[in-house]
């Protein structure tokens, strides 16, 4: 989901990748060919994809940080020293600055 775009290790250059457009197109094609029995489920899936596509990049970054921390077994606040340490251990390529910025953003993000 994330990758470095810069050459300096202390820069926060995070790329958010989205594939909702491609998924949405495939789902629209499936809806066009769907039987009446399949339509309700596919329409619900289309609504969920539209909702996901509308998510702000900050929310996606926060979700990613929380997911990485949860996978590492960390349950505290993301922007604490322990949270930032856990994030850097989970993602060794993150600089201290990048991890701190991502953790602070995750702590203040909308849920």
Structure report:
By secondary structure, this protein is an all-alpha fold. The chain contains 5 helices and no strands. The protein has helices at residues 20-32, 39-53, 57-71, 81-90, 96-108. Helix 1 runs antiparallel to helix 2. It is elongated and about 55 Å long.
Can you tag this structure with a few keywords?
single chain, 111 residues, mainly alpha, 5 helices, 0% strand
Helix-strand layout with pairing:
Layout: H1 20-32, H2 39-53, H3 57-71, H4 81-90, H5 96-108
Helix pairs in contact: 1-2, 3-4, 3-5, 4-5
Rg, rounded, reads 18 Å
N- to C-terminal separation? Answer: 19 Å
Number of discrete helical segments: 5
- Beta strand count: 0
Shape: elongated
Strand and helix order: HHHHH
Structural class: mainly alpha
Précis, in short:
With 111 residues, this protein is mainly alpha-helical.
């Amino acid at each position: 989901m994330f990758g470095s775009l810069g050459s300096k290790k202390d820069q926060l250059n995070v790329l958010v990748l989205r594939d909702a457009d491609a998924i949405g197109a495939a789902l629209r094609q499936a809806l066009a060919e769907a039987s009446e029995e399949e339509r309700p489920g596919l329409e619900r899936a289309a609504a969920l994809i539209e909702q996901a596509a509308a998510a702000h990049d900050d929310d996606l970054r926060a979700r990613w940080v929380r997911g990485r921390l949860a996978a590492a077994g960390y349950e505290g606040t993301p922007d604490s020293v322990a949270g930032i340490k856990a994030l850097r251990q989970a993602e060794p390529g993150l600089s201290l600055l990048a991890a701190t910025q991502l953790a602070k953003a995750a702590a203040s993000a909308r849920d």
